[in-house]
Amino acid sequence: MSLKHFCDRRLAGAVNTVHVLPFYPASSDSGYSVIDYRQVHPAMGDWTDVERLGERFGMMFDAVINHISAQSGWFRGYLEGAAPFKDFFIE
User: Fold this and answer.
1) Sequential pLDDT tens for the chain (91 residues)
2) What is the dihedral of CA 34, 35, 36, 37, to 10 degrees?
3) How far is CA 38 from CA 12, 55, 56, in A?
4) Which residues, including other chains, have CB under 8 Å from residue 31's CB and lie 6 or more apart?
């Protein structure tokens, strides 16, 4: 059962906002070690699914911008000293 289907059948009228925990591709840490903030983890659907859920419910997300995977392109760019990634992290 999809999250949208569950919310439509069980929550409509009782709940107006859905809080979705990290749904980005991640390498570990229960989704908090984010690889790419611009993608939806394929096992959880895609941006169209997120948009459809948002048609009926308000949406709240965990951005978890203080967590990132060592597999992230942003972190690899930082390790290489590439702009703008070199300014994305504090040692």
Assistant:
1) 589 999 999 999 999 999 998 899 999 888 889 999 999 999 989 999 999 999 999 999 887 878 889 999 999 999 999 999 988 888 8
2) 10
3) 28, 20, 22
4) 21, 22, 23, 24, 41
- In three-state secondary structure terms, 31 is helix
Q: What is the DSSP letter of 34?
A: B
pTM: 0.77
Phi then psi for 59, rounded to 5 degrees? -125, 140
Report phi then psi at 33, rounded to 5: -100, 75
Closest CA to 56 of 24, 26, 15: 15
- Indicate the DSSP class of residue 26: B
